[in-house]
Amino acid sequence: MNPTPYPQRTALGLAASGVPVLPLRRGKVPFGNCTACADNACGGRPNMKTPGPCRCPGVCHAWAAATTDPSVIVSPAWAAAWRRAECVGYHPGGAGLTVVDLDDADAIAWACETLPATRTVETTRGEHWIYRGAMASRNAVRPGVDIKSTMSYARYLGPGAGAMADLPDAVRALAVKEPPAARPAAHAVVVPAGVGGECPHRTPAYLARGIAMAEQRITEARSAVHATVYRVFLAVLSRHGRCGCLTDAHVSRLFTAAQAKGETARHCADAWTNARTRLGL
After folding, report:
1. Quick check: is 237 in a domain?
2. Stated pTM of the model
3. DSSP secondary structure letters along the chain
4. What is the pLDDT of residues 221-277, one digit of tens each?
5. Are residues 212 and 266 both part of a single domain?
6. Residue 124 CB-density burial (10 A; 0-12 exposed, 13-18 middle, 19+ buried)
7. Which terminus has fewer CB within 10 Å in the chain: N or C?
8. Do 127 and 82 have their domain in common?
């Protein structure tokens, strides 16, 4: 669904704020290159490594076609594309931004526990977390998580909610390809988390920070509060539910934050139980 019935108007507004835009057709994909630009016949961007417009007046070269020039956005060639466009795309890296694309509830739960809060935009299946700062893009950095920044595009779905944070090192590290993990030694004995031994977390401050971030995530919810509460509970339990470090005081803090957003005590209890059941706790 378009964020406005007039995607070209939305594009002009974004471009005026310094965000390079392009029209996206059905399937949320860019328009194909014209005949003159097919297979980089125009000599514009071999393998799409060099951003910037080519001499073609059309919407060619996918993310690299994104522009902030209003004369291009309203040109006849682009106007024809806007009439067929399903939505507006933008080049995050060109605006000095990075989008962490979270495709499902598990990915969102991971982000709630691991990454600093930032501006959040709801998507069809999950959320976009937008940070200030550009980096290399990379898909499938972990299950359900893609990074869209330089040499990539994202769909514009509205301004989102929350203050935008600086791009953290934790996100930059996701784009670094790690060597394959060494195969575990034969006959290694794996002790399930929470069964004897010490808590696997580094310091008590790690748990305290996680609970504080969970409270903040609930407090800053502007919509879909039910779903947000459940995802936060799921994130906390997935990280801390098996080692026995959660106390009644921690749980009470989360329930209090949820009830301050209008949730009932019954819903909080049900959401907590459902999250435990999903994780097999």
Report:
1. yes
2. 0.63
3. --SSS-HHHHHHHHHHTT--EEEEETTTEEPPP-TTTGGGTT-S-GGG-S-S--S-SSS-SGGGG-B--HHHHTSHHHHHHHHH-SEEEE-TGGGTEEEEEE-SHHHHHHHHHHS---EEEE-SSSEEEEEES--B-EEEEETTEEEEBBB--EE-----BSPPEEPPHHHHHHTSPPPPPPPPPTTPPPPPTTSSS--SSS-HHHHHHHHHHHHHHHHT--S-HHHHHHHHHHHHHHHHTTTT---HHHHHHHHHHHHHTT--HHHHHHHHHHHHHHHT-
4. 777 778 888 888 888 888 777 777 778 788 888 888 888 888 888 788 888 888 888
5. yes
6. exposed
7. N
8. no
The answer to whether 44 touches 120, Cβ cutoff 8 Å, is no
CA triple 227-209-181, angle to 5 deg: 85
Kindly report the CA angle at 180 between 179 and 181, in degrees rounded to 5?
115
Domain check: are 67 and 113 in the same one? no
Interior angle at CA 86, CA 133 and CA 77, nearest 5: 90
What is the residue type of 220? E
The answer to the question of residue 190 being in a domain is no
The residue among 38, 62, 91 that closes a domain is 91
Give the domain range for residue 208. 204-279
Which amino acid is present at 69?
D
Q: Are residues 28 and 81 in the same domain?
A: yes
Say whether both 208 and 223 belong to one domain: yes
Instruction: Examine the fold and report which residue of 45, 63, 91 is the final residue of a domain before the chain moves on.
Output: 91
Number of domains in the chain: 3
Q: Using CA atoms of 192, 196, 200, 206 in order, give the dihedral in degrees to the nearest 10.
A: 130
Judge whether 221 and 228 are in contact, CB under 8 Å.
yes
